[in-house]
Specification:
This protein has about 220 residues and is α/β, with parallel strands linked by helices. Helices cover about 35% and strands about 20% of the residues. α2 packs parallel to α3 and α6 packs parallel to α8. The structure holds D-xylitol-5-phosphate and zinc ion.
């Protein structure tokens, strides 16, 4: 079940001194979701932002908050980010001993649960999870930093995940994150992705360019 392609700007590339305005500008520019990258300096070698920032941004938009937790351990943080305003919570199977429990926890809080596959993580990790997730995130860079180059081998993985989703018959979103431009985004959509996360490509050129940036990404799709 293919859903219409949605664009999710990652605020990791926004101007952190003006985050509220940046989120409002992306909403006005036609974004479908706001992607929020949470990095803990431990699971990934970078620190980004915490729940207080998410809570402060919540009144800036009615768009869903797509919170990508690159944190280990992660279970204790899930309720905290839900309370702060997350609509979708995506976690990495490597970030805790019991990924299935984490997915159950997210859904028990009434939010959509996503599972993220790093470039080196095999699709087989979905075997026992596909019946319980709402979103699968294929990482097309290794997590931790914005502005990295797209890893082309992940296009085949998107294709494989698309097959798995279609076989499942469930309405699971297929998101891709890392190095997404109009060009790489088009490859990912052709392979079956239906949410494009883009940091650098969304925020390039400042607020005057946002509508054009979103339109280009959508046009690629
Ligand atoms: C990487 C993050 C991405 C990143 C995307 O760990 O999950 O969301 O910010 O940034 P770009 O689009 O610049 O690769
Ligand atoms: Zn992300």
């Amino acid at each position: 079940m293919r859903q219409p392609v949605r664009i999710a700007p990652s605020i990791l590339s926004a101007d952190f001194a003006r985050l509220g305005e940046e989120v409002r500008a992306m909403d006005a520019a036609g974004a479908d979701l706001i992607h929020i990258d949470v990095m803990d300096g431990h699971y990934v070698p970078n620190l980004s932002l915490g729940p207080a920032v998410v809570r402060a941004l919540r009144p800036a938009t009615r768009l869903p908050f797509d919170v990508h937790l690159m944190c280990a351990p992660v279970d204790g943080l899930v309720p905290v980010f839900v309370e702060a305003g997350a609509d979708i919570v995506t976690v990495h199977p490597e970030a805790g001993p019991h990924i299935h429990r984490t997915v159950q926890l997210i859904r028990s809080l009434g939010r959509q649960a996503g599972v993220a596959l790093n470039p080196g993580t095999p699709v087989a990790v979905l075997d026992q999870l596909i019946g319980d997730v709402d979103l699968i995130l294929v990482m097309s860079v290794n997590p931790g930093f914005g502005g990295q180059a797209f890893i082309p081998s992940q296009v085949d993985k998107i294709r494989a995940v698309r097959r798995r989703i279609d076989e499942s018959g469930r309405a699971i979103a297929l998101e891709v994150d890392g190095g997404i431009t109009a060009e790489t985004g088009a490859l990912c959509v052709a392979a079956g992705a239906d949410i494009l996360v883009a940091g650098t490509a969304s925020f390039a050129g400042g607020p005057d360019a946002y509508s054009c940036n979103i339109a280009r990404l959508r046009g690629a799709a």
